[in-house]
Amino acid sequence: ADVFTYDPGFTSTASCDSTITFIDGAKGELLHRGYPIDQLASKSHYLEVCFLLLYGYLPSAAVLEKFETTITRHTMIHEQMHYFFRGFRRDAHPMATMVGVVGAMSAFYHDSTDIADEMQREIATHRLIAKMPTIAAMAYKYSVGQPFVYPRNDLSYAANFLNMCFAVPAEEYHVDPIVARAMDRIFTLHADHEQNASTSTVRLASSSGANPFACIAAGIACLWGPAHGGANQACLEMLKQIGTPDRIPEYIARAKDKDDPFRLMGFGHRVYKNFDPRATVMKQSADEVLDLLGIEDNPTLQVAKELERQALEDPYFHDKKLFPNVDFYSGIILEAIGFPTSMFTPIFAVSRTVGWVSQWKEMIADPQNKIGRPRQLYLGETERDYVDIENR
Ligand code: CMC
Asked: Which of 234, 273, 315, 320 lies 20 to 30 A from 103 at CA?
């Protein structure tokens, strides 16, 4: 008989080797190509981190400028795709629209779907990173019934995204540099996270040789779930449902109750068993952004901080090593910026695109790459004879 290990949820199986991202869950450490996430979040910016993840080194000023120009020049989507958007129900969740539109990029850009051609792989990489904010912003505009806003090449990656989401023809919209910086930091903190569920989905999908747009669409579909990228939306909704600090004990009791499926959203992580370093930066950022925007006494932030304090003092969360994760505070920042909860997960998808693409490129370039094909533990019937319908 075949011999293999049984590992549901892949808690102890390494599916690949990689040189992109390192996580030490016990120490609460996250490194991209060796650089700590807190340094990247404070000193670098999203497109530089994209370059780092994709190519493995910090670029010189000239190389970075060339990369940024390439990305900026690819931000528009084919005009025909606007019609494709209009085929969705007008109240569609932006994630639903994104799964469809990104998958459909393989129909609109089939000149960059040949994965055996290195140049086509590079073009697909640039197209995905450049067009994802445009697609997410259009999905949002469509869901609220506002006209699409074209990308602008004079704005930074984050500022352009904000402009595409919030500008309307009726009045001028100026992107606040503080808000653009906060947006950029959210993109940076979500850029990659080694073999999480959506990245593993992208790798598994592409192991069959499927084209990059189809594979990234699969990643978006996986990210949507509330245990993964959907947690930021679920977390803010939970904080609002709690509403006031006096109701926190009730929710903590529910999270601990084995008979209640409720979990504290934005809490716990498969790998981090000490703290999530991204959450530390995010919490600080939430304070800064609300302060800079003049939002005082935000009730949701108060509930979040008090919930964190009470949970961390509770033996249940302590013993199970459950800490706030990246999604615990991100929703508060996104709401302060003006995004509805339905846009939280699309923003995660925009940010994570570079991680998916970097891992996809690494995998395709690996000569040992073979189709992903897990085994199973069969618990069904043993062999039995077919029974004719009149005899059942
Ligand atoms: N609230 C209450 N109990 C929890 C929670 C939580 N948020 N998370 C885990 N537990 C308990 C769980 O019930 C289990 O208890 P027991 O051992 O008694 O059965 C134990 O902790 C271990 O949980 P698990 O589900 O086996 O752990 P996992 O590694 O499979 O799950 C997780 C990790 C992130 C899916 C989980 O912690 C969770 O559902 N968290 C809430 C959703 C969330 O915030 N997700 C975002 C993750 S970070 C961003 C991203 O990657 O997308």
From this structure: 234
Distance between Cα 268 and ligand 1 center (Å) = 5
- In the predicted structure, residue 134 carries a pLDDT above the cut 80: yes
Catalytic residue among 32, 190, 228, 269: 269
With contact defined as beta carbons under 8 Å apart, do 133 and 161 qualify?
yes
Segment (H or E) for 209: none
Q: Render 254-292 in DSSP notation, one character per residue.
A: HHH-TT-----TTB--SS-SS--HHHHHHHHHHHHHHHH
Q: Which of 30, 273, 320 for a ligand 1 pocket mutation test, highest count of atoms within 8 Å of Cβ?
A: 320
What ipTM is given for this predicted complex? 0.96
Q: What's the full length of the chain, in residues?
A: 392
Q: Please report which confidence band the pLDDT of residue 167 belongs to, taking 50, 70 and 90 as the band edges.
A: very high
253-302 pLDDT, tens digit each? 999 999 999 999 999 999 999 889 999 999 898 888 888 888 878 899 89
Atom 45 of ligand 1, nearest CA residue:
227
Task: Spot the catalytic one: 184, 192, 276, 327.
Answer: 327
What domains can you pick out in the chain, each with its CATH number?
A: 22-227+341-365 (1.10.580.10), 231-337 (1.10.230.10)
- Judge residue 263's burial from the number of C-beta atoms within 10 Å of its C-beta, 0-12 exposed, 13-18 middle, 19 or more buried: middle
Q: What is the DSSP string of 303-354?
A: HHHHHHHHHHHSHHHHHTT--B-THHHHHHHHHHHT--GGGHHHHHHHHHHH
Q: Ligand 1 centroid to 165 CA: how many Å? A: 32
**Nearest to residue 190, comparing CAs of 17, 21, 9, 13?**
21
| pLDDT higher than 80, residue 1 | no
CA angle, corner 84, sides to 80 and 85, nearest 5?
115
